[in-house]
Amino acid sequence: MWSSSIAYSKSNIFWVSEPVEPADGVIVYGWGFVPKEEVLLWSVPDDDPKTGYAPFSFPNEKKVSLSPIQVSEQSIKFEIPAVFPPGIFGVEIGENRFLINRPQIEWCQPSRLLPGLKQDEAYPGSELCLIGRNILLSPEDVQKLKVMVVPKKGTQPTFLEILEAEKYCCRVKIPETLPVGEYDLFIHNGHGGQSGWSEAFLLRVVNPTAWPSKIFNIKEYGAKGDGLSDDSEALRKVLKAAESNGGGIVYIPAGTYRVGGSFFIPPKTLIEGDGTDFSWLNWPENEPHGEEDFIAAALISSGQFALEELSIRVRNAKRVLVDRSALGDEELLGNAKDWEDLSVVFQKKGPFSKDFSDVFLRNIRIQFLPFYGYPHGSVVNSPLWKILRWGLEGVPGVGFSLALGSLENVEISGCEIIGCRQKAVHLKNGRITQNSFYNPMGAFCLTEIGGERLFVEDNWFSDESTIYRRLAPLRFMYVAHNQFSEFGRGSRLAMSIDLGLPMGKKKTDPLAKIQPLKATIAGAEVIFKEGNFAKDSLVDQQILIVEEDNKEPLPRKVIANSEQKLSLDQGTSLPLNKEIAVYFLPWSSPFAAPVESSEASETKILGKNVLPSLVGLDVLVVSGKGAGQLRKVTAQNSNAIRVDRPWDVPPDFSSLLFFYQWEGKSIFFENQAQDCRFLFPLIGFAYDVLFDGNQLRRSQGLIAQGGYFIQWLNNVLDVAVNYPLVENRELLRSRIKSPDFGTLGFFVDQKMGGATMIPFETIRGGVMRSNRLAFGQRIIVGIDHGGESASTQAVVGKDLLIDHNWFEHGPVGIEIGGGIRQAVLRRNLYFDIKEPLRIKEKKEIVIKD
User: How many CA atoms lie within 13 A of 386 on its CB side?
Assistant: First the structure.
């Protein structure tokens, strides 16, 4: 949790492991703690919160003094007294005073998105979801919950109706009569009296953009809807009429409309039927005889459209619904060749705006059935093999039931989508709720989602799914109450969080490509067989080098180039005089640098080779004084930078800064999965992620390869089942190794430091509390070692709290590998566990079980 919300006064504290209950352990992150530090605690009374915040007085006569469990210069661990009632707790450590369990709003979003909305905006009459920490400390508190808004240019509060609430999310009603404008939004979780109000969160109340409302009935343009007549021309005419009107409502009355070819959905147009069981758009279902029978896409768009209350059934197509934003992403990634046929279709519509936004898919059914029927004769000679490989091989650019790219303000709700692949990635202010995604079409079928401020709730995902990114970081995601099952093919991963390599700045030039170039390597130089690059045009470009006989990519950075030669930075040793493939990634390399000095928001970087384009990047202190703080660079003058807000703990000469685009700040709450390898495997480096109340059965567990401030709370893992490692044929998808047991915790790849270009400890501030692990499941923190304990001289992770977990029926309870420091194990329970603790090095590890 960020310091801006927990600090009661000027403080050197910037992260606390929340939420906590009485008798729970706590990690506090900051600076300047001393070995004999005294911790003072208060139970903040649950008085009347009234209509505004008032500071807690920290009365001397009601404090409880205790000794910490473990102290280092930058962290302190202690226990909340068991005699305290649940609620908000006051803490004093030295000169630092702050509150624990005080609610915090991190972002918000209406439950129904309308055109023109931006992030953290609502409209009069909307139902607004508030997402954050400590929203509800227990279900019994829902009647005490309060939410209010105060105008920025006023003082009179308006209390909002609470519609429903849970631990990290609350839904409220914005009054129809609330004037548009800017408001301070506050929430109170029922504890702490006036001190329990959250800090103000900026909410903008706006009027949504109105699309044309003229209705265009397809039957008035000649459609029969009898399932026999060809209604293609009528659909084309009605869409053209809406386009000429600047948008409108294309009405598809109940019926079955046979259509063929590709159709463009005009901007600001809603295509609406009478329900998914009653209004059908059916493309030809005859058996294909050649590639010419497959259209590029059934429906294409360029943002600003909606589909509601109808079904779409397609057989002979390469794709069903594709927005221009998805094609634009692929072009930027250098994959345009895989989408050439679709580009031709879009070109016929002329130029498109690149400001993609406002896509709403509500209560629609997409049935993409390219493999309907059986192959005749030789399988490899059938058209389906040439186009889609019968789903047995991954074919880039085709097989999508749905393809959405870099879009803002997107809602997919109440839909049933069946087919090979679905993609809705790089979304901003996106909402994916109450859908079913079913991928029964082959080994290379999956659902991909991702973005920033992404609300994913009450969905069913069949087979493999992933939260994935190429061009934009994954941030502020709320993933709750989803079901994952029916894993019959692929790698059996339930919503893998695939961060991969840390991102520098996004590239916009045509050299940012995933398609490889052939080359040979000599020392630290790469020599291309073809290519004509401008001198030093690739400096700071991040690349991956792949040997033909080695699937593990080697990441490197270009430091100079000529027309056909690259000079690379130092790093993992490279093969000599071998044929290689070079992949150019769509972002620059992250940058690490030591600190010369810091004060307030100003920091001087040590060294002469400071990158000149750090503005806009995020900066994380990864070691030394102030490690764990995250800021954004807002200005730069040579080796001096300014960040967006003052440092809580100013870095000094001992500190190392890492410049990149941070990813994380997300919540995964009460999801269920069964018969998968892993649920939410976090691949890469994340910041401040919480997994709470998730349930897995017959799986290999919940793991992360690394990250800062990662918490697993109240998860249930029943029955460990081992699934073999599956070779991943897509280079940029990270491989997840399969242990021979089930696990929760940090499972660090031995090659992670080199493979992800992270030059520091990969774990900091991890919490595993109140989890239940049974029948072969264990908690693990350490390096992936293939079943054998691996030794390491490096420090892999710091500051762990393994607290109040329940283990039953298994060979091992808790396993901690080498290189782990400053860990506390306390109040864990073991039943029928052969080896409760397996610890490689007990240095700086406190055991209080």
Answer: 12
pLDDT of residue 618: 95
Which of 356, 367, 365 is closest to 283 using CA atoms? 367
- Residue 561 pLDDT exceeds 80: yes
Strand duo 158-159 + 475-480: pairing: unpaired
Q: List C-alpha distances in Å: 659 to 258, 452, 625, 664, 684.
A: 54, 19, 17, 15, 16
**Which residue reads 């490689």 in tokens?**
840
Query: For residue 169, what are the CA distances in angstroms to 103, 163, 457, 535, 673?
Result: 11, 11, 11, 52, 21
Cα–Cα distance measured from residue 601 to residue 334, given in angstroms and rounded to the nearest whole number: 39
Closest to 104 in 3D by CA, of 220, 15, 173, 5: 5
Compute the distance between CA of residue 631 and CA of residue 649 in angstroms, rounded to an integer: 12
505-534 burial: b if 16+ Cβ within 10 Å, else e: bbbeeeebbbebbebebeeebbebeebebe
State CA 597 to chain mean position distance: 34
DSSP track, 422-462: EEEEEEEEEEEES-EEE--S-TT-EEEEEEEEEEEES-EEE
Residues counted in the chain: 849
The CA-atom distances, in angstroms, between 400 and each of 284, 306, 354, 386, 445 are 17, 18, 22, 16, 9
pLDDT confidence of residue 386: 74
Residue 109: which residues within 8 A CB-CB, separation 6 or more? 119, 120, 128, 129, 131, 429, 431, 453, 455
Q: What is the pLDDT of residue 755?
A: 41
Can you list the positions of beta strands (E) in 327-481? Answer: 357-368, 400-404, 408-413, 416-418, 421-433, 436-438, 446-457, 460-462, 465-468, 475-480
Q: Which two tokens stand for residue 433?
A: 């709720």
pLDDT of residue 562: 84
Closest Cα to residue 729, out of 546, 573, 555?
A: 546
Query: How big, in percent rounded to 5, are the helix, strand and coil portions of the chain?
Result: 10, 45, 45
- pLDDT tens-digit series, residues 32-45: 999 888 999 999 99
Band (3; pLDDT cuts 50, 70, 90): very low
Q: Is the pLDDT of residue 732 over 60?
A: no
677-to-221, 498, 772 alpha-carbon distances in Å: 52, 15, 18
Torsion of CA 217, 221, 225, 229, to 10 degrees: -170
Model pLDDT for residues 231-279, shown as the tens digit of each residue: 999 999 999 999 999 999 999 999 999 999 999 999 999 999 999 999 9
- Give the global pTM: 0.93
- Residues 6 or more apart whose CB falls under 8 angstroms from that of 692 comprise 167, 168, 667, 668, 669, 670, 711, 712, 713, 714, 715
**348: its two tokens:** 């016929």
Provide, rounded to the nearest whole percent, the portion of the chain with pLDDT above 70: 90
- Determine if the peptide bond prior to 19 is cis (ω within 30°): yes
- pLDDT band per the 50, 70, 90 thresholds, residue 752: very low
The reported pLDDT for the residue numbered 293 is 83
CA distance 671 to 414: 18
Q: For tokens 């469990």, what's the residue? A: 69
Of the given ranges (52-56, 157-161, 374-378), which has the lowest mean pLDDT? 374-378
Six-digit token pair at 777?
Answer: 């499941």
Q: Give residue 160's Cα distance to chain centre.
A: 30
Quick one: pLDDT band at residue 575, thresholds 50, 70, 90? low
